[in-house]
User: Fold this.
Amino acid sequence: MLLLTCPYCGVEGEETEFHNGGEAHLKRVGDGSSDADFTAYMFERKNPRGIVFERWRHVYGCGKWFHAARCAVTLEVFGTYSAQTSEPPADLIAKIRAKRPEWEATP
Amino acid sequence: MSFRLPELGLLIDRDRPLTFTFNGVPVQGFRGDTIASALMAADHRMVGRSFKFHRPRGIVASGAEEPNALMNMGEGARFEPNQRATTTEVFNGLTARSQNHWPSLGFDVGAVNNRLARFFPAGFYYKTFMKPAWAWKHLFEPFIRKSAGLGQAPTVRDADRYEYFYAYVDILVIGGGVAGLEAALEAGRSGARVLLLEQSAYFGGRFMVDDVSVDGRDGPAHIAHLLAQIEALPNVTLRARCQGAGVFDHGYALGYERLTDHAPANNTPRHRLWRIRARRILTATGALERPLSFAGNDIPGVMLAGTVRDYIRLYGVAPGARMVVVTNNDDAYRTALTLHAAGLEIPAIIDARPEGGGALAEQARALGLRIETGKGVARVNGKTRVKSVEVCRQSGTGGAVETIPCDGLAMSGGFSPVVHLWSHCGGKLAWDGANAMFVPDLARPPTNQNGEGFVIPAGSAFGALQTEACIQSAVVAARQAADEVGRSIKEEAAPRAVRRISEHPMAPIWHMPARAPYRLRAQSFLDFQNDVKVSDIDLAAREGFESVEHTKRYTTLGMATDQGKLSNINGLAVLAGALDAEIPTVGTTTFRPPYTPISLGAIAGEAAGPLFKPTRKTAIDGWHESHGAIFEPVADWRRPYAYPQAGESTQGAITREILATRGAVGLFDASTLGKIIVKGPDAGRFLDLIYTNMMSTLKPGKCRYGLMCNENGFVMDDGVVARLDDDTFLCHTTTGGAERIHAHMEEWLQTEWWDLKVFTANLTEQFTQIAVVGPRARHVLEALGGVDVSREALPFMGVTGGKLGGIDARIFRISFSGELSFEVAVPTSQGLLMWNLLLQAGAAHGITPYGTEALHVMRAEKGFVVVGDETDGTVTPHDLGMGWAVSKKKKDFIGKRGMQRSFLTARGRKQLVGLRTLSDTEKLPECAHAVEGGKAIGHVTSTYFSPTLGHPIAMALIRGGRARMGEVLDFPVGGKVHKARVVDPVFYDKEGARQNV
Assistant:
C-alpha cells in the first residue's frame, strides 16, 4: 500500500485515501479527430516497466486531483505535483534524471 | 510409542490439567500444551490423512510449518477447518477433528488411492479429465468437487468478533526469538518507537530448547534477561501470539494477533488485524528445518529433528521411546543429546556425511551413542507408525545393510532461513552454497517511497545460523535501522560472550540414497500436504516443465495451507537435479503474503453485518418504517418500495398507490436523488461540456432534462437541471450517480478545463425532496399556501422558491410520472415536517404515499428510461431514441467524438422499443431475451403490469428495434415462449396533456 503526499493539502496519506486515475498528461482529442487519434487517446496507454506519470485524486481528503511520478518496479515516488499542467515540471524531470541516468522519457 | 516424560516441559503447567476431545475421544493435556503436544503425549501418532493418497500422516513439526496436523476445530458457529494442531493451544472443552478421511481416521475408503498411486502421477488432473466433453459436467466435476479441498467449509455464520488495530512505528521487528529480542532491545535503546511481533505464545524461539551459553546464562535465562530489559523501555512494545503476516509497499505490514484462540472469552475480539506502518522492518523470522527425502519419510513418527527437541524440552513429551536420528548436518546431534538426556534410547545416528560431524558428534560419541557416517535411510517400515528403519550406504542405490527397529525417526536436512517477509515486497535472494540455502541478498532489498531498502534481515533469517553470528547480526541490523530512522546509537554495542561450538559443514543431500531407483523415489515425499513425491518432480521435468512456477502448478508442490514451507527447497533441488541445472538458476516460487493463512474474520475486521456498509436513510425514513414500508436498497440508500396496508399484498399496494396518484394525488420521498450545485461565471459553458444537450441557454427559473455521456459516447447518467440564477445551476442526478457524477465533474474541471471559473458542491444530503404528484397536486400545495404555484406563475419545467407552509422551500415543476407534479425541496432538518404538512394538507384530496415500484411503473407507462435499467454502459442516446437530447450545435461535449464512431452509428444496433404482450395477463419475465432464427436479438430491460392500462408493459433493447414496429417477437424462457409485439415505448399520454396543466 503506497504512501503518497498530496501536493494540495500537504498530507502524506495511505493509498486507501487516494484513487488512481491512470496515465497522466493524455492529450484529449475531440470532434474532427481521426479514428486512430481518438482510439489512441481513449485506449492506448504506455505502461512502461519503470517510471510512470500517474493521475491520483485525494478522494478521502481534499478531493483534489494531482499527478505523481513513480517507479512501477521499485515503487520509489519521485514527486507529486499539480494536475493543472500538461507536462511534468522541469525540476522533477531533473530529479529523476539525477537518480536514473539511464531513464529516457517517452514522449 | 510417544508419551509424557516425568519431568521437563518449559511451557506446560502440570498443576493445570485440561481435557479436550479429538475425534470425540477425551484427551488429557496441561495448560500450555498445543493440541499436537497433548496428542503426542497420549500416543496419538496418526492425526490425519493426506490429500491425494489418503496416507496416514503424523505430526512432523512443532510450529507454523506443520503440513499434516490440520484440524477441523470447534462446532457450529465457531467451526473452522485447517487449524494447525502445532500452533493451537489447548483449553478445557476444545473439540478437534482430523480431516480428509471417510468414514473414520482409522478406516478410510479413500485410502484405496494409495494403492492406485501409480495412476495418479503429477498432472493427472490435466491428463485424465480431458475427454469426452460431457464427462466433465456429469462425472469429473462432481468427483473433483467431492474430493477437493482440505477440511470442511463452515455452514453457519461466524459467532466471533474481529477488529483492526492501527500502529505507526519507527521500527517493526518480526520474530521474538533471540535475534528479534536482541534487535528490539538495541533499537529500543535508541529511543525509536519499536514494535515486536512473535507468532507463538512464548518468546525465545530456539533459545528455549537449545543448549547455549550467553554471558554465562543458558538460553531461557538469557531470554528472561532480554525481556526484563525490554520491559523497562516504554518505547518498545512486545506482542506474543501475533504473527507478522505480510510486508507490503512502503513499510506497510500486517500483524495477525490471536487473542482468544487459546482461552475463549466473551466480548473479546477473537483476532485482531494489525495494520502497521513502519519506517524500517527487521525480519528476525528464524529458519525452518528441512526434511530429508527417503522412502517412507511420511510415516507417522518421522519428524524434524529440531521439533523432537521442542516436544521434549517445551512440553515434556517424548515423541518416541527409541528414536533413530538421520542427518546431513551437525544440528541433529543436539536432538540426539537431548533424547539421551531425557533417558530415551537412540539406536543409531545416521549421518550422510562420510566425515561425520564436529564437536557435537564428539559429545555424542563420548556418551557411547552409535554413529554411522556415510549412511542414509533406504526406507522406513511401518504403516500408521514407524516400526523400523533400513539403513544403506548414502552413495549407493538403496541396498539395505541393516534394519534397525525403532518407533520414531528424527530427520534433519539442513535449514532454510525464513525469507518470506523479506521477499513479500520484492526483496531478492542469494544462494549460500555452503549451507545450501537461499538468504536475503542485502544488495537488492525491497524499496520504499524514497528508493531506500526498508527491510533488514536479522539472525538466522539472514542466514546467521550460529548463535554468536545470529546475535551479532541482530545488533547490526538494529543499529542500521535506528540510524536510518534518525536515531543513531553513539555507544558501542555491549559485546556478548557466547560459547562457541565447532561444527562441520552440512552436506547438500537431496535424496537418500543418492542413486535411489524409481521404486524408492516414488515413495519419498517432498510435500506432505499435497502428496508430491520426488518421482513427480522427476516426471514434471521430463515432461518439459522447466520453470519452477510451472512445476509448482503442475505437481501442486508447495501449494495449499503451508505453501511449501518444508518442501520448496527440496523440491526445487530435485527439479534442478532433473534439469541438470544449478539450484539458484532454477530459482524459487514467489513468496506471497500472508506467511500462514489468517482468518477471513480478521481481514473483515468490524466490517461485517450492518457495519459492512452503513445504510443511508432520508429524513423521512422513520415515517416510512412506522407506516409499513417495505424497503429496497438503492445504491447505499434504503428506499420505500411500497407501503402495503394490513391484509394487502405487495402487488396490491403498488396498484393502489399508482391508481391513487393518477386519480388524485400521491406523495413520494425523492430525497435520494443527487443534487449538485454548479456555480460560477463559466457554469453554463462547463455544463455544455458535461451534458450532451445545451444548458447555457437555459433561462433562470427554468428546468431542462439533461443527458450525460462518458467519453465513449455511452449514457452514464441523467436528471433535471434547474438554473437558479445566472451563475448557479442545480443538477439532479440518479440516486446511485450522485457521488460518481460529482467526482466526474470535478475530474474534468480539475484536470482538463481548469481555466473555467466554476465550483461544484454535492448537496444531496442537505435537502429533502418530496414529489407531490397527480391531478390534485396543485390543490395540496395551495392548501399549504405561501407560494404561487398557479399554471401562470409556475409553468411546467419551471422552478420557484418561497415559504411553503412557513418553510423555506424550492419548488420544481417537473414530472417523472407524466402527471401534474411538483417537487418540493426543503432543508433536511425540515424534511419530515414538510412531509407531514403535505400529508395533512393532502388528506382531503386522498393523498397517498407511494414507493419506488409505483414510481417505476408510472415512468415506464410514460416510456421514460432509467439509467442502469435501459442502459448498461454500452448504450448511446441514439440507441434510446433520445437523439433529441444530443446537441448538434455544440462544438464539443464529453462523448461527442465517441458516439461518432462507425460501429456506434451502424445499422442494426439494439434500440429501445416498447413491448405489448399478446396476452393481457402474462407479464414478460425480467431480462428475457428475444430470439429470432435461433439467435438472441435483444433483451427486456423493464417489465411491469400497468394498473393504469390494465395490461402488462415492457421496454426492451432490440436489434434494429425502431424498424420493427408491429412485429411479434419470441421470448423463450424456461420452456415457454412468451410473445410480444414491438410498439412505441410511450404507452400513456404521449402528447403530455396530463403534466402540462
Q: What stands out?
A: The two ends of chain B are 96 Å apart (CA to CA).
